[in-house]
């Protein structure tokens, strides 16, 4: 008889498909199924936002918290979208419409420190009360879970903390600390104090038994002053506990052969229907109906980190070589305006949709010839994984997880039949433009491009390998703590 699965409590502020603002949700939603194949049973604790409460309507309460930072709360047990869930039903903290983190005027909720301290405190309570073998906390919003575990009563439950993006650190004024219910000793350099503030991500890094981040190259980059964003010293000090484990995709959720969002479905064995998707995408975004124009797509946040300004600066290389550009995303208002301005100045050549649109994103991956991911830094990135899965070879900056997941189709790679996309460095508009030109040249070499596209479609972007590494970490912690 096989041993019982190891029980792990995941803690996160979002989880696809229940609530999503970015790639964090995709990871939290997909990893439990991959870990189940490795004999790890994941239960995910989420805040009780309105959409989450709607999805778990009628769920049974399993725990009561009479006063959680200003009001009563309950923990509900539920199963939804194939996920085993615990939902923190605290209306005074989470019963707010719209974005999980932002007020209707676009500013952060003034009590976010208490909202996500509540999530960490509930995680520690649940982990002890329900006998979980480990806690897996994701990003700054779950960063205080480790502190509450460290300073809480027995039994001790070990924890893993995953950095999805070191740029978002969850720093709040020190005046919040007395309200968190932690001992004074916790507010120290050897704790959650960070340059005089309460650092939620710093707490996660300091108190976790193991730290992971979402690619091996990013794990190396964040230990340098250039990439560490003020935390490189701490991360160098914890190098023995820091692991870079690549993100993945759910291959069933992301499957061009079955994706109903695509006008024409296709597979690695029969990629020909992609041509119909390209034509439909050109129509949807007002681009000229030209099968002989290489179609690039940018899907993501319109932000400095993501290199959208570099794309705009490199437009002469793209448009001057007969290519088209599809842009989908939201973000910095100035970049949104520049994208719309470039579209107006180049009718039929550039199409822009300022929106967060999951269906249209699939359409872009399934119809574009190449996907641009020119990030200045990128912990892992999911856009390039989606592009590979949907047969649109990605053109990426050689940073973080982009460097780890895309094989540059240089001459030696092509000779070996190994290229899956294109990489460029340094991350400048000039190098991006030169690499766009190289990509167009490859696209026009139909035999070479068919090989690159076939390699992209054949790439294993699933969680299979990474789930084994996470499972090994949890098993190691459970054995050490036993």
Automatic annotation (TrEMBL):
SUPFAM superfamilies in the record: UDP-Glycosyltransferase/glycogen phosphorylase
Function summary: Synthesizes alpha-1,4-glucan chains using ADP-glucose.
Pathway given in the UniProt record: Glycan biosynthesis; glycogen biosynthesis
Name of the protein: Glycogen synthase
Lineage, uppermost ranks: Bacteria, Pseudomonadati, Pseudomonadota, Alphaproteobacteria, Acetobacterales
Reactions catalysed: [(1->4)-alpha-D-glucosyl](n) + ADP-alpha-D-glucose = [(1->4)-alpha-D-glucosyl](n+1) + ADP + H(+)
Annotated binding of ADP-alpha-D-glucose, by residue: 20
Gene Ontology biological-process annotations: glycogen biosynthetic process
